[in-house]
Design a protein that fits this description.
The chain is mostly helical. Helix content is 79%, strand content 0%.
Length: 116
């Protein structure tokens, strides 16, 4: 265990790691994590609040940037993970939007409100 900790400490002190921490390859994805975190936090909120246009735009945005993160050299797996997570969250929100507005979710909500 001590050998592993020593090796990890050496890697964290390396010039390459310090350069990575000060690069846009690191801080760009870190800043982008706010989008999927917000989408995940909104999954329990009322589907009436979901913007279908924005959800579609964010799905397309994340698909494009997943491809970019995969194709850029060196690959940016932190950016890929961020947009993969966002794609899943946005697809979930999109399904909730479609269910509410086009598959009867709005009617079910109205019925439950009148019974209460």
């Amino acid at each position: 265990m001590a050998a592993i900790a020593k090796k990890l400490g050496g890697q964290l002190k390396s010039k390459e790691f310090r350069e990575y921490l000060t690069s846009t390859h690191f801080w760009g994805p870190v800043a982008n994590w706010g989008i999927p975190i917000a989408a995940i936090a909104d999954i329990r909120k009322d589907p009436e609040l979901i913007s279908g246009k924005m959800t579609l735009a964010l799905c397309l945005y994340s698909m494009c940037f997943m491809r970019f993160a995969w194709k850029v050299q060196p690959q940016n797996m932190l950016l890929f993970a961020c947009h993969f997570t966002n794609e899943g969250a946005q697809l979930t929100q999109g399904a909730r939007f479609i269910n509410y507005h086009y598959l009867g979710g709005k009617d079910v909500k109205k019925e439950s409100e009148t019974k209460s």
